[in-house]
């Protein structure tokens, strides 16, 4: 099985390197990732300027390609032009920091996986809770096992999964839950400061997720130290509202 590996922290990020090592016995891999960190860029793609890709080596062995664009750019270019064959799987990560709740909508890590799903390729995003000394090697071993288990279920082509690993799960026997994505708002606060010329500027605060609610979600499970798996889809259509609106005549003046 051939897997394209990518991320949003940049091709030299330790999380990507750890993931590459952990899955090398399971898959033939090629790395196609942004040349620099692209955290929080969401699903942006490059239209107004050309993309370049630089071959990257580990010693004398080719490791992959560094793309001077977004995570979605890397996947698009990787699948369309760079990969020697169509990937069977796309893995995005391991991200330095969780991508849960509404952060999924901002995440370049998840966007890369979504782009893979656009191609009809099963795609998996993997993120690890941030701390000063992140144990990416242990997280990669856990992620590798979870990915293998997901693939053993033979998900339909184009399936999309989001895996989050809290720091607490790296010790002992972790618990894994399949949970929905939380849509509770948080992190909209800014700290206002003044620069040396007296001008105001604003720094987005790193507010913690909201307190756990009664409803199970990725955010609540992660707060309890549980590894989460969330199946995602990118069709944003509100099908209930769609059916209701179809019953309305929007041109009554005809």
Architecture overview:
The chain has about 250 residues and is an alpha/beta fold. The protein has a single domain, classed as Survival protein SurE-like phosphatase/nucleotidase (Stationary-phase Survival Protein Sure Homolog, Chain: A, 3-Layer(aba) Sandwich). Helix content is about 25%, strand content about 25%. It has 6 helices and 11 strands. The strands form 2 sheets. Strands 3-4-2-1-5-6-7-11-8 form a 9-stranded mixed sheet, sandwiched between helices. Strands 9-10 form a two-stranded antiparallel sheet. Helix 3 links the parallel strand 5 (about 90-95) and strand 6 (about 120-130). Helix 1 packs across helix 4 and helix 2 (about 70-80) runs parallel beside helix 3 (about 110-120). The longest helix has 17 residues, at about 135-150. The radius of gyration is 20 Å and the shape is globular. The mean pLDDT is about 95.
């Amino acid at each position: 099985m051939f897997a394209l590996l990518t991320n949003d922290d940049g091709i030299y990020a330790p999380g990507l390197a750890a993931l590459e090592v952990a899955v090398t016995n399971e898959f033939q891999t090629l790395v196609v990732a942004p040349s620099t960190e692209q955290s929080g860029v969401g699903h942006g793609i490059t239209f107004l300027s050309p993309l370049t890709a630089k071959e990257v080596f580990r010693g004398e062995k080719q490791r992959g390609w560094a793309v001077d664009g977004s995570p979605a750019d890397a996947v698009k270019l990787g699948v369309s032009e760079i990969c020697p064959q169509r990937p069977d799987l796309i893995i995005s990560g391991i991200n330095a920091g969780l991508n849960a709740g509404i952060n999924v909508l901002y995440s370049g890590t998840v966007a890369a996986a979504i782009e893979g799903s656009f191609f009809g390729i099963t795609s998996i995003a993997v993120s690890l809770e941030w701390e000063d000394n992140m144990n990416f090697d242990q997280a990669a071993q856990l992620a590798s096992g979870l990915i293998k288990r997901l693939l053993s279920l033979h998900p339909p082509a184009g399936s999309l999964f989001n895996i989050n690993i809290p720091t607490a799960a790296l010790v002992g026997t972790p618990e894994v839950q399949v949970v929905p994505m939380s849509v509770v708002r948080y992190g909209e606060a800014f700290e206002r400061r003044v620069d040396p010329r007296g001008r105001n500027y604003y720094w987005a605060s790193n507010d913690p997720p909201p307190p756990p609610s009664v409803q199970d979600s990725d955010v609540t499970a992660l707060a309890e130290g549980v590894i989460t798996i969330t199946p995602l889809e990118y069709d944003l259509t509100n099908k209930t509202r769609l059916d209701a609106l179809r019953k309305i005549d929007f041109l009554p003046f005809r």
